[in-house]
Design the sequence.
Protein backbone atom coordinates (compact mmCIF):
# COMPACT_ATOMS: atom_id res chain seq x y z
CA UNK A 1 0.00 0.00 0.00
CA UNK A 2 1.18 3.54 -0.80
CA UNK A 3 1.89 5.90 2.13
CA UNK A 4 2.94 9.52 2.63
CA UNK A 5 6.58 8.65 1.88
CA UNK A 6 5.93 6.57 -1.23
CA UNK A 7 3.55 9.21 -2.60
CA UNK A 8 6.25 11.83 -2.12
CA UNK A 9 8.80 9.54 -3.77
CA UNK A 10 6.44 9.20 -6.73
CA UNK A 11 6.52 12.99 -7.10
CA UNK A 12 10.32 13.01 -6.94
CA UNK A 13 10.67 10.29 -9.58
CA UNK A 14 7.92 11.70 -11.80
CA UNK A 15 5.86 8.53 -11.41
CA UNK A 16 2.32 9.85 -11.90
CA UNK A 17 -0.06 9.17 -9.03
CA UNK A 18 -3.42 7.72 -10.05
CA UNK A 19 -6.50 8.29 -7.93
CA UNK A 20 -10.16 7.53 -8.58
CA UNK A 21 -13.31 7.94 -6.55
CA UNK A 22 -15.21 4.93 -5.22
CA UNK A 23 -18.22 4.86 -2.97
CA UNK A 24 -18.92 1.14 -2.58
CA UNK A 25 -17.31 -2.26 -2.08
CA UNK A 26 -17.34 -3.57 -5.69
CA UNK A 27 -15.93 -0.39 -7.27
CA UNK A 28 -13.19 -0.20 -4.64
CA UNK A 29 -12.33 -3.86 -5.15
CA UNK A 30 -12.14 -3.49 -8.94
CA UNK A 31 -10.12 -0.25 -8.73
CA UNK A 32 -7.60 -2.00 -6.48
CA UNK A 33 -7.52 -4.96 -8.87
CA UNK A 34 -6.77 -2.53 -11.74
CA UNK A 35 -3.76 -1.17 -9.80
CA UNK A 36 -4.91 2.30 -8.74
CA UNK A 37 -2.55 4.13 -6.32
CA UNK A 38 -5.19 5.93 -4.25
CA UNK A 39 -8.97 5.84 -3.83
CA UNK A 40 -11.02 8.87 -2.83
CA UNK A 41 -14.35 8.42 -1.13
CA UNK A 42 -15.41 11.84 -2.35
CA UNK A 43 -18.42 13.76 -1.19
CA UNK A 44 -19.28 13.77 -4.92
CA UNK A 45 -21.11 10.75 -3.49
CA UNK A 46 -23.99 13.19 -2.98
CA UNK A 47 -24.36 13.84 -6.68
CA UNK A 48 -23.32 10.63 -8.43
CA UNK A 49 -24.70 8.06 -5.97
CA UNK A 50 -27.34 9.78 -3.82
CA UNK A 51 -28.86 11.96 -6.56
CA UNK A 52 -28.48 15.40 -4.91
CA UNK A 53 -27.60 18.40 -7.07
CA UNK A 54 -24.54 19.34 -5.01
CA UNK A 55 -22.32 17.94 -2.24
CA UNK A 56 -23.95 20.09 0.42
CA UNK A 57 -26.48 17.57 1.75
CA UNK A 58 -23.86 14.88 2.38
CA UNK A 59 -23.40 14.04 6.08
CA UNK A 60 -20.64 12.59 8.26
CA UNK A 61 -22.76 9.42 8.58
CA UNK A 62 -22.99 9.11 4.76
CA UNK A 63 -19.18 9.39 4.48
CA UNK A 64 -18.63 6.80 7.20
CA UNK A 65 -21.14 4.36 5.70
CA UNK A 66 -19.59 4.53 2.21
CA UNK A 67 -16.02 4.85 3.49
CA UNK A 68 -16.36 1.58 5.40
CA UNK A 69 -17.58 -0.24 2.29
CA UNK A 70 -14.64 1.12 0.27
CA UNK A 71 -11.93 0.15 2.77
CA UNK A 72 -13.44 -3.35 2.98
CA UNK A 73 -13.21 -3.60 -0.83
CA UNK A 74 -9.70 -2.15 -1.16
CA UNK A 75 -7.82 -3.12 1.99
CA UNK A 76 -4.45 -2.81 0.22
CA UNK A 77 -4.96 0.66 -1.28
CA UNK A 78 -4.44 4.15 0.19
CA UNK A 79 -7.99 5.39 0.83
CA UNK A 80 -8.84 9.06 1.47
CA UNK A 81 -12.29 10.02 2.78
CA UNK A 82 -13.78 13.50 2.36
CA UNK A 83 -15.01 15.46 5.35
CA UNK A 84 -18.42 16.74 4.19
CA UNK A 85 -19.95 20.22 4.20
CA UNK A 86 -19.89 22.06 7.55
CA UNK A 87 -18.40 19.10 9.41
CA UNK A 88 -15.19 21.13 9.99
CA UNK A 89 -16.37 24.73 10.30
CA UNK A 90 -18.32 25.08 13.53
CA UNK A 91 -15.51 24.81 16.06
CA UNK A 92 -12.09 23.18 16.22
CA UNK A 93 -13.34 20.75 18.84
CA UNK A 94 -16.36 19.74 16.76
CA UNK A 95 -14.14 19.40 13.65
CA UNK A 96 -11.65 17.19 15.52
CA UNK A 97 -14.50 14.98 16.77
CA UNK A 98 -15.90 14.55 13.24
CA UNK A 99 -12.45 13.83 11.80
CA UNK A 100 -11.83 11.23 14.50
CA UNK A 101 -15.16 9.49 13.76
CA UNK A 102 -14.52 9.42 10.01
CA UNK A 103 -10.89 8.30 10.28
CA UNK A 104 -11.41 5.73 13.04
CA UNK A 105 -14.65 4.19 11.77
CA UNK A 106 -13.71 3.96 8.08
CA UNK A 107 -10.16 2.71 8.67
CA UNK A 108 -9.00 5.04 5.87
CA UNK A 109 -5.40 6.26 5.46
CA UNK A 110 -6.22 9.99 5.25
CA UNK A 111 -9.03 12.50 5.17
CA UNK A 112 -9.55 15.32 2.69
CA UNK A 113 -10.73 18.84 3.46
CA UNK A 114 -11.40 21.85 1.24
CA UNK A 115 -9.97 25.35 1.59
CA UNK A 116 -6.99 27.12 3.15
CA UNK A 117 -8.39 29.65 5.63
CA UNK A 118 -6.40 30.26 8.85
CA UNK A 119 -8.90 27.96 10.67
CA UNK A 120 -8.36 25.18 8.12
CA UNK A 121 -4.58 25.52 8.38
CA UNK A 122 -4.81 25.26 12.17
CA UNK A 123 -7.11 22.24 11.83
CA UNK A 124 -4.65 20.49 9.47
CA UNK A 125 -1.79 21.01 11.93
CA UNK A 126 -3.87 19.63 14.78
CA UNK A 127 -4.98 16.60 12.75
CA UNK A 128 -1.40 15.91 11.67
CA UNK A 129 -0.22 16.16 15.28
CA UNK A 130 -2.96 13.72 16.24
CA UNK A 131 -1.79 11.23 13.57
CA UNK A 132 -4.46 11.85 10.94
CA UNK A 133 -2.90 12.53 7.52
CA UNK A 134 -4.67 15.24 5.51
CA UNK A 135 -5.06 15.76 1.78
CA UNK A 136 -6.00 19.38 1.05
CA UNK A 137 -8.18 20.65 -1.80
CA UNK A 138 -8.07 24.10 -3.45
CA UNK A 139 -9.19 25.73 -6.71
CA UNK A 140 -12.82 24.89 -7.36
CA UNK A 141 -13.96 23.64 -3.97
CA UNK A 142 -17.48 22.21 -4.53
CA UNK A 143 -18.61 22.70 -0.91
CA UNK A 144 -18.25 26.47 -1.50
CA UNK A 145 -20.02 26.45 -4.85
CA UNK A 146 -22.60 28.98 -3.64
CA UNK A 147 -19.87 31.40 -2.55
CA UNK A 148 -17.83 30.86 -5.73
CA UNK A 149 -20.89 31.61 -7.88
CA UNK A 150 -21.17 28.16 -9.48
CA UNK A 151 -18.91 25.41 -10.81
CA UNK A 152 -16.37 27.72 -12.47
CA UNK A 153 -12.69 27.55 -13.38
CA UNK A 154 -10.62 29.29 -10.67
CA UNK A 155 -7.25 31.07 -10.85
CA UNK A 156 -7.88 33.10 -13.96
CA UNK A 157 -6.46 36.45 -12.82
CA UNK A 158 -3.21 37.51 -11.17
CA UNK A 159 -4.73 38.03 -7.71
CA UNK A 160 -6.37 34.61 -7.57
CA UNK A 161 -3.26 32.91 -9.01
CA UNK A 162 -1.15 34.56 -6.27
CA UNK A 163 -3.67 33.41 -3.66
CA UNK A 164 -3.68 29.81 -4.94
CA UNK A 165 0.12 29.66 -4.75
CA UNK A 166 0.17 31.22 -1.28
CA UNK A 167 -2.58 28.83 -0.08
CA UNK A 168 -0.79 25.78 -1.49
CA UNK A 169 2.45 26.71 0.31
CA UNK A 170 0.57 27.36 3.57
CA UNK A 171 -1.22 24.00 3.31
CA UNK A 172 2.12 22.23 2.82
CA UNK A 173 3.59 24.11 5.82
CA UNK A 174 0.58 23.10 7.93
CA UNK A 175 1.28 19.42 7.31
CA UNK A 176 -0.93 18.42 4.35
CA UNK A 177 0.45 15.30 2.62
CA UNK A 178 -0.90 16.29 -0.80
CA UNK A 179 -3.16 18.82 -2.47
CA UNK A 180 -6.03 18.27 -4.90
CA UNK A 181 -6.10 21.09 -7.47
CA UNK A 182 -9.52 21.31 -9.08
CA UNK A 183 -10.48 23.26 -12.20
CA UNK A 184 -7.60 25.68 -12.59
CA UNK A 185 -5.56 26.55 -15.70
CA UNK A 186 -2.80 24.03 -16.34
CA UNK A 187 -0.10 26.74 -16.15
CA UNK A 188 -1.22 27.65 -12.63
CA UNK A 189 -1.21 23.96 -11.61
CA UNK A 190 2.33 23.68 -13.01
CA UNK A 191 3.50 26.74 -11.03
CA UNK A 192 2.04 25.30 -7.81
CA UNK A 193 3.39 21.80 -8.47
CA UNK A 194 6.92 23.09 -9.08
CA UNK A 195 6.94 25.08 -5.81
CA UNK A 196 5.82 22.28 -3.48
CA UNK A 197 7.55 19.20 -2.12
CA UNK A 198 4.24 17.40 -1.51
CA UNK A 199 2.37 15.95 -4.49
CA UNK A 200 -0.41 17.77 -6.33
CA UNK A 201 -3.28 15.73 -7.69
CA UNK A 202 -5.22 17.44 -10.43
CA UNK A 203 -8.78 17.27 -11.67
CA UNK A 204 -9.38 19.68 -14.51
CA UNK A 205 -5.91 21.10 -13.78
CA UNK A 206 -3.94 19.81 -16.77
CA UNK A 207 -1.09 17.41 -17.32
CA UNK A 208 1.58 19.00 -15.10
CA UNK A 209 0.26 17.85 -11.71
CA UNK A 210 2.01 14.98 -9.92
CA UNK A 211 -1.11 12.87 -10.30
CA UNK A 212 -4.69 12.85 -11.49
CA UNK A 213 -7.98 12.13 -9.75
CA UNK A 214 -11.27 11.50 -11.51
CA UNK A 215 -14.83 10.63 -10.54
CA UNK A 216 -15.41 6.96 -11.40
CA UNK A 217 -18.99 7.55 -12.56
CA UNK A 218 -17.67 10.12 -15.07
CA UNK A 219 -15.01 7.95 -16.70
CA UNK A 220 -17.46 5.02 -16.84
CA UNK A 221 -20.44 7.19 -17.99
CA UNK A 222 -22.43 5.56 -15.21
CA UNK A 223 -25.73 7.35 -14.59
CA UNK A 224 -24.27 10.79 -15.33
CA UNK A 225 -25.66 12.87 -18.18
CA UNK A 226 -23.46 15.98 -18.38
CA UNK A 227 -19.71 15.65 -18.20
CA UNK A 228 -17.23 18.46 -17.53
CA UNK A 229 -14.77 19.39 -20.32
CA UNK A 230 -11.86 17.75 -18.46
CA UNK A 231 -13.39 14.25 -18.32
CA UNK A 232 -12.41 11.47 -20.70
CA UNK A 233 -14.77 8.49 -20.60
CA UNK A 234 -13.37 4.99 -21.06
CA UNK A 235 -16.69 3.10 -20.99
CA UNK A 236 -20.37 3.80 -21.49
CA UNK A 237 -22.36 2.14 -18.72
CA UNK A 238 -25.30 4.39 -19.69
CA UNK A 239 -25.61 2.05 -22.69
CA UNK A 240 -24.17 -1.21 -21.35
CA UNK A 241 -26.38 -1.42 -18.23
CA UNK A 242 -29.80 -0.73 -19.86
CA UNK A 243 -28.84 -3.20 -22.63
CA UNK A 244 -28.12 -5.96 -20.11
CA UNK A 245 -31.21 -5.23 -17.98
CA UNK A 246 -33.33 -4.95 -21.15
CA UNK A 247 -32.16 -8.39 -22.29
CA UNK A 248 -33.05 -9.84 -18.86
CA UNK A 249 -36.54 -8.28 -19.05
CA UNK A 250 -37.11 -9.66 -22.56
CA UNK A 251 -35.95 -13.19 -21.66
CA UNK A 252 -38.15 -13.34 -18.53
CA UNK A 253 -41.16 -12.16 -20.57
CA UNK A 254 -40.40 -14.76 -23.29
CA UNK A 255 -40.03 -17.58 -20.74
CA UNK A 256 -36.41 -17.99 -21.83
CA UNK A 257 -35.00 -17.29 -18.34
CA UNK A 258 -34.35 -19.30 -16.21
CA UNK A 259 -33.57 -22.44 -18.22
CA UNK A 260 -33.05 -25.99 -16.88
CA UNK A 261 -29.38 -25.51 -16.04
CA UNK A 262 -30.25 -22.37 -14.07
CA UNK A 263 -32.84 -24.26 -11.92
CA UNK A 264 -32.64 -26.66 -8.95
CA UNK A 265 -34.35 -30.06 -9.43
CA UNK A 266 -35.62 -32.84 -7.18
CA UNK A 267 -34.11 -36.33 -7.28
CA UNK A 268 -35.82 -38.82 -9.68
CA UNK A 269 -37.04 -40.82 -6.63
CA UNK A 270 -38.82 -37.80 -5.13
CA UNK A 271 -40.26 -36.84 -8.49
CA UNK A 272 -41.76 -40.36 -8.80
CA UNK A 273 -43.05 -40.28 -5.20
CA UNK A 274 -44.68 -36.89 -5.86
CA UNK A 275 -46.15 -38.13 -9.16
CA UNK A 276 -44.38 -35.34 -11.06
CA UNK A 277 -43.96 -35.55 -14.81
CA UNK A 278 -40.59 -34.87 -16.40
CA UNK A 279 -40.08 -31.16 -16.85
O1 LIG B 1 -15.71 14.65 -4.02
C1 LIG B 1 -14.92 14.41 -4.95
O2 LIG B 1 -15.10 13.48 -5.76
C2 LIG B 1 -13.73 15.24 -5.08
C3 LIG B 1 -12.96 15.15 -6.35
C4 LIG B 1 -13.67 15.89 -7.41
C5 LIG B 1 -11.56 15.57 -6.17
O3 LIG B 1 -13.44 16.00 -4.20
Sequence:
Amino acid sequence: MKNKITLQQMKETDDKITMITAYDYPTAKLAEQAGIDMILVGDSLGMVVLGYDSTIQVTVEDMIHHGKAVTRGASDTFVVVDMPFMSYHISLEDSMRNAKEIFQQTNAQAIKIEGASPEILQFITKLTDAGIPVVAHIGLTPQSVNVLGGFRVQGKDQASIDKLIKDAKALEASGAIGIVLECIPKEVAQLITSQLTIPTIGIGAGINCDGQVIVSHDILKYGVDRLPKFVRSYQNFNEVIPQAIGQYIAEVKQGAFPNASESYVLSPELRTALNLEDA
